[in-house]
Amino acid sequence: MHAPAKAMDFSFTLLFVLILTIATTAAASPNIYIHMLKPHYGSNGHKHSDLNCLSWRLAVETNNLQNWTQVPQACKDYVGHYMLGKQYRRDVDLVAAEAYKYAKGLNLTGDGNDVWVFDIDETTLSNLPYYARDTVAFGAMPLNETAFNAWVEEASSLAIPGSLKLYKQLIKLGFKIVFLTGVEEIYREARIKNLKAVGYTTWEKLILREAGEGGGVVYKSKKRKELEEEGGYKIRGNMGDQWSDLLGSNAGDRTFKVPDPMYYIG
Ligand SMILES: *[C@@H]1O[C@H](CO)[C@@H](O)[C@H](O)[C@H]1NC(C)=O
Ligand SMILES: *[C@@H]1O[C@H](CO)[C@@H](O)[C@H](O)[C@H]1NC(C)=O
Ligand SMILES: *[C@@H]1O[C@H](CO)[C@@H](O)[C@H](O)[C@H]1NC(C)=O
Ligand SMILES: [Mg+2]
After folding, report:
1. Exposure winner among 12, 119, 237, 258, fewest CB in 10 A?
2. What is the pTM of this model?
3. Are 220 and 249 in contact (CB under 8 A)?
């Protein structure tokens, strides 16, 4: 009985000292409550001392940081915790839920020309088992195209749960699905196998990049333009993890950005 009572006394003493400190400083500065707030929780509920990584990730997501080639060494663990933890999934889920709300409100005419464009990597399929490797370190190691392509060939990427749910909802609403990826044609069979294995079983078109064809925003714009101008489709929604999936011509009536702090494609 004595020990808890002592502990309680001690807590009250602490609390008292704290209140006294706040009261005396508050008198000196009316803004004390704002400055007293010290957030500790950045990603996934983990305490981390380097809040600059959160700023870095925010700048990445808002496209304020461009053309970066690697996750900063100091943010390797931060990005790892974010990607493997609950926060990343929640962030995707919110985007997907918002996309569904928008899609549901469109009242499709039923002419069969309404398409939804999905990027693949880190949008519908997750390469986290690859990115979690020591040699990749969530993007903190230099890109190794040979190793990544071998991973694509394995066809063992995972479905991103929020995106898979949205995909199924969109099909029910009557959208045609177009997958548009920067991965090369030679991986078509691996990609088909992978998509089907994790639940993406049907689509209108699966567009991969021809060897030698440019990549990034130029490539994606060109393919979307072809879809609309030659294919007669109307891009009602477009979802990607890179800004280069969503910028440029024929971007779609609305675009949705899912998070990706692991790599940048311009
Ligand atoms: C990134 O690279 C692109 C293409 O080279 C260029 O147009 C753009 O201005 C660059 N952005 C920054 C912030 O350097
Ligand atoms: C879609 O249809 C519903 C039900 O008829 C209606 O309430 C809604 O306003 C329509 N939305 C648009 C964008 O036309
Ligand atoms: C890239 O990956 C390949 C295949 O795993 C490996 O053989 C090669 O050594 C790696 N290159 C570098 C620079 O790490
Ligand atoms: Mg992608």
Report:
1. 12
2. 0.82
3. no
